[in-house]
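Private note to self, pasted from the team thread so I don't lose it. Backbone tokens:
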């Protein structure tokens, strides 16, 4: 897994603390591949159900609030059916 720039082609290790390329372009994360259905831990109700796709492992995480599964509110807005995340119900308010 690494980051790359689609403008200049420069590559960065995923361990490097970079947020953009030296040419100022954004970086794209290149992963091993697509997560398969069998790779998902169905018994986990948090972000950690996708652990196999993450660069860190659950055992390495020192703090977790079991974030994930933010409730959705079904709302008809301007005649279009939408789903909005109800973030204020989650302890971390980020997922
Ligand atoms: Zn670049």
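Design output:
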């Amino acid at each position: 897994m690494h980051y790359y720039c689609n403008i200049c082609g420069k590559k960065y290790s995923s361990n490097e603390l970079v947020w953009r390329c030296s040419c100022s372009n954004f970086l794209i994360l290149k992963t091993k591949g697509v997560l398969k259905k069998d790779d998902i831990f169905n018994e986990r109700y948090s972000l950690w159900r996708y652990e196999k796709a993450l660069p860190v492992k659950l055992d390495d995480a020192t703090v977790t609030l079991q974030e994930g599964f933010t409730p959705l509110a079904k709302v008809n807005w301007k005649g279009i059916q939408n789903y909005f995340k109800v973030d204020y119900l989650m302890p971390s308010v980020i997922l």
